[in-house]
Structures are given as C-alpha cells and as structure tokens.
C-alpha cells in the first residue's frame, strides 16, 4: 500500500498544486474533473466521467467482490479566496488512497470506489449524487479534510440556506424621498434583527448572511435589495426551527420600512454528521502509525465547526470526515492564509499522509470482514 503511494507521490503532489492553481467554483470544476479522471485512466482504473447526472462528478471502481469502500474526493474552490478550504488536498489524498487500494483490490477481495463529488461549498453535490443512488451498496465512505489541527472529526452541524428579496418603491433620494419606500433600510433592519436574535440561540447554532444586492445608485431610493443567509444548528429539524425565528427578524425589517419581503430556500439542506466510531478508530490508528495523533475535539480545546454534504452521506452509510493539519493552529479555513498553506509543504504532506491513512483503513476493512459488521452495527446503533 505505502510503496504504491510512495511511487505516486510526485503525481499526487503535482495534481494537488495543479488543482490549487486552477480554482473552480461549485459545478464548474471541469479542469479538476479532467485532471483527476485522466490520472485514474492512465493508472488503469475504470472511471465513469460525468457520473450520477453531474457533469463534473466521476465514479471510478476496482475490485470484483467483497466489502465496498468509497473514498470521496472534493475539488471545488471558493469565490475570491480560491482553495482556501484546501479541497485540492482532499481530492489528491482520495485519489492516492483510491489508486493504492485499486491496485490491491482483486488480491485482497474488496471493492473500492473513488467518487468525485463536486460542489461541496453550498451546492450539495453529494446530496444530488446520493439521490441518484451513488452510495447504494457502499459499506463505508471516507474522506479527509485539511484543517489547522489533526482532529478525529469536524463538528459538522446541519445547514439550510435562504435567499431573501426586499421590494420597496424607488424615488429621487433628495427631491422626493417621502415618496420612496427603502428596500435597503428594510434589509439593514432585518440584518440587525438577526444580530439581536443571536444572543438567544443555542451555543451550537450559527446564523450568517451577506447582502448580495444593496441598491443601484445613492440618489435613487433602493426599490430592491437581496440577501443570502445560512442558518445552522446541531440537527436539521433544529435548523428548521431556527430558520423560522430568522425569518421573523427579516420580516420585521420589511414591515418597519414599509416594504415587502419574499424568501426561498436555496441549495440543498446539509445534514449533521454521524461519524462512525469503528471506522474512526481504524483511521486514527493508521494516522498514528504515520506520526499523526488525531485529537478528540471534545477535550483538545480545538474544534472546527462547519457543515458539509458529507453529513448527508453519513446519514446513509457509515462515514468519517477526519481533519489533517496543513496550517498552524488558529489559521481559519476559508482565509487567504489557509489557501497558501494548502499548497505548501504541510499541505503536500497531508496529501500523502491522508492517502496512506485512508488506503490503510480500506485495507483493514478488506482484511477482516467482521470489521465491516462492526462498522454496520455501530451505524445502526447510532441511528437508533
Ligand atoms: Zn469550506
Ligand atoms: Zn471544505
């Protein structure tokens, strides 16, 4: 396993840098799709391009029988900050793990899927793929995510998204202001209402929004403004409740400014993550053997809170989403600083360590079928 990854190291690191140099937004990852599928084909792995109804998804398979393990590769970037979530590291660690496992699959009596999952940053690629059956027959799904610490898991909370439009009445802002109804005031008051709400939400909850349209010109009373919100809680049903409270604040802004408001749910709802403890234990032991001790976020004082469509996968099949350190402690994902680290030495090391630890975990499951049973039992218990 490890010799195979040593032999691939140059290819994996080069691919990681290539992805980093070509950041692509959700569902536009054509360069990444071409790069990753070409490497898979060159290495002799059968791959379906544009898999499960998505142009930039792929699904590669190896092995004929035995437990099926899916390794997920994310490769979308963010507007303005590029690969500031380090998905170049995720994609190439997954690729390396998948290729190493594929080379052994027949002999080891297992199956591996290398699943290219686009649009993690809000687009819900895995949700769409899951609806198309991408994770059917999968005994375990895994990936790694870069972070500022080596951690067993990310604190993945549920997330729903809203788009909000305010409508008012345009007028000359100096000549006839009294005839206007200001949609920007409505949005600002709504935003401030949410700010007041934040004192009274649960500690694990998050609400954050941006103005996506704030008016056209200062001498026209804005008759239209728009916002995008994310509302997060520990479970989807709680996010739903919180969403109602957020909407009440936003409506109050419209009411105060004499405007109207409309909203719609956008994207896909992201579920919280149920990390599989048996898989985690195997992965942590493998990471340990590579010199990485994965800390428990409950006791280490370091946690990364966020949402991911891997949460939705974890509700369907046993899954893990451990974090590997690529940046010094305290460097936030989604920052320019983090983007730099994702392409530097520590990012490259995480590609190789991630590939090794994932591949070793796949091999662990193949080696002893009772482990797959244990994984399933833990999954069933968690669901109860
Ligand atoms: Zn991200
Ligand atoms: Zn990410």
Summarize the structure.
The chain is α/β, with parallel strands linked by helices and 384 residues long. 43% of the residues lie in helices and 20% in strands.
Account of the 3D structure:
This protein has helices at residues 2-21, 30-42, 87-108, 125-131, 183-197, 236-256, 277-289, 297-300, 310-316, 336-341, 345-367, 369-383, and strands at 46-49, 58-62, 68-73, 111-116, 140-142, 145-147, 155-156, 158-167, 206-213, 224-233, 260-270, 305-306, 319-320, 323-325. The chain has 12 helices and 14 strands. The longest helix is centred in the C-terminal third of the chain and has 23 residues, at 345-367. Strand 1 (46-49) and strand 2 form a beta hairpin. The strands form 4 sheets. The protein has a 6-stranded mixed β-sheet with strand order 1-2-4-3-5-13, with helices on both faces. With 384 residues, the protein is of the alpha/beta class. The two termini are 36 Å apart. Helix 5 packs across helix 6. One zinc ion binds next to loops.
């Amino acid at each position: 396993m490890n010799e195979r990854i040593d032999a691939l190291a140059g290819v994996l690191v080069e691919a990681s840098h290539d992805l980093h140099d070509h950041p692509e937004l959700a569902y536009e990852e054509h360069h990444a799709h071409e790069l990753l599928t070409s490497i898979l084909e060159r290495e002799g792995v059968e791959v379906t391009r544009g898999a499960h109804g998505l142009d930039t998804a792929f699904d590669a398979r190896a092995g004929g029988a035995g437990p099926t393990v899916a390794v997920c590769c994310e490769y979308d970037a963010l507007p303005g900050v590029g690969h500031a979530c380090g998905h170049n590291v995720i994609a190439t660690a997954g690729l390396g793990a998948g290729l190493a496992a594929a080379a052994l699959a027949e002999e080891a009596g297992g199956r591996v899927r290398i699943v290219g999952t686009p649009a993690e940053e809000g687009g819900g690629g895995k949700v769409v793929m899951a609806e198309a059956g991408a994770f059917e027959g999968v005994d375990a799904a895994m990936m790694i995510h870069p972070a500022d610490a080596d951690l067993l898991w990310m604190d993945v909370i549920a997330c729903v998204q809203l788009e909000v439009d305010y409508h008012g009445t345009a007028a000359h802002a100096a000549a006839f202001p009294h005839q206007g109804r200001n949609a920007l005031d409505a949005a600002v008051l709504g935003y401030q209402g949410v700010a007041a709400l934040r004192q009274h939400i649960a500690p694990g909850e998050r609400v954050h929004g941006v103005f996506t349209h704030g008016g056209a010109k200062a001498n026209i009373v804005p008759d239209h403004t728009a916002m995008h919100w994310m509302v997060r809680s520990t479970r989807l049903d709680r996010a739903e409740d919180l969403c109602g409270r957020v909407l009440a604040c936003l409506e109050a802004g419209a009411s105060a400014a004499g405007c109207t408001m409309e909203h719609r749910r956008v994207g896909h709802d992201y579920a919280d993550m149920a990390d599989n403890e048996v898989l985690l234990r195997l992965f942590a032991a493998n990471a340990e053997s590579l010199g990485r001790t994965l800390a428990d976020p409950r006791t280490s004082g370091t946690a990364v809170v966020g949402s991911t469509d891997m949460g939705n996968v974890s509700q369907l099949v046993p899954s893990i989403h451990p974090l590997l350190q690529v940046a010094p402690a305290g460097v936030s994902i989604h920052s320019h600083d983090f983007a730099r680290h994702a392409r530097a030495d520590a990012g490259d090391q995480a590609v190789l360590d991630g590939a090794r630890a994932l591949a070793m975990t796949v091999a662990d499951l193949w080696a002893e079928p009772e482990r797959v049973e244990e994984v399933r039992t833990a999954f069933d218990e968690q669901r109860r």
